Amino acid sequence: MTNKQRYQRTFSVLHASEDCLMEVKAMKHTKKINISRLAAVCAAAVMVMALACAAYAADVGGIQRSVQLWINGDQTDAVLDIRGIGYTVTYQGEDGESHEFGGGGVVINDDGSERPLTESEIMEHLDLPEVDYRADGSVWVRYHGEETEITDRFDADGICYVQVMTDNGALYLTVKYDGGHASSPHSYVSPKSFNTGA
Amino acid sequence: MRASVDEVFQKYGDRIFSAAFSVCRNRADADDVVQDTLIRYYSVGAGKDFESEAHLKAWLLRVAINRAKDMASSFWRKQKVEWEEYMDELPFAEPEDSGLFEAVMGLPEKYRTVIHLFYYEEYTVEEIAHILRRPGGTVKSQLNRGRTLLKNILQEGWNDDE
Q1: Per CB distance under 8 Å, which residues of A are interface residues toward B?
Q2: Cβ distance of B36 and A188 shorter than 8 Å
Q3: In this predicted complex, what is the ipTM?
């Protein structure tokens, strides 16, 4: 028996799980959440990416909620204001100034109809990993005080797939270079399904 | 030519898994690579016009190997079953096959991938160089080095033929 025959016989016992195909098929029918970050003007005119800890939230009246966010590695008190399909987060930075950022999004149902995100979905989104484009050109994914660089992990189409371990299990993050990102707990979201008009 | 995701999985799923396993040495990661490769095919491959089955297979293996390398260097990794434990579950046809499997898994990754593409997929040095985007001379050197290491480990269990 030749080396080649022996090698092929040995490694022919390796088989992919059928679940792989099922996951891909499920992805085609997964409810998609389309989030876009709206630029918000703040006192320092700086866009700050912040992560929200959904573990603590208190009702401060109306459609506002008091939450805690991860900012520069520290949990910070902030106010979440939800109006329609958009939301604004306001907090006091280390410089003592008031900072603000906002976002918004809709849920696209299987039948193509859309609805605004619920409060819990927004909170869940604020707790998602964040993609940070830094001044030195590097790109990072951050989650709960930890971060990893993905600068060199974009393919020729400018797409990067990153798997993130969250408190609720694995999260599949699809990043378009400077073109947004989307995530799902089931499988990677197709880059063709979000920010296609960007 | 354009095959469905189902067809690609049925025809190439195990090959993608094996190639990925040769890089990451972990069943969970290799399965994730299969899934990711199928997703890439679904989302990106849809717009590609593959000239032939060989072209499609080479594209799939390149995507899979690159993805497996990304996973191996990922900042966040799941708790995994080591390959030694997984090996105990594999139904090798002959007892000596487990020795070959163990020897290959013990090789440095750069040799494992080349060895796998040469012996399992029967690619030439030039084809392997194209898939891995390495110089042909480098691939040839890595193939020879991998063979030498396997011979040292397996002795009579590894022939001097190609």
Answers
A1: 2-4, 6-11, 13-17, 19-21, 23-25, 27-28, 146, 148, 153, 155, 157, 159, 161-165, 170, 187-188, 190-192
A2: yes
A3: 0.92
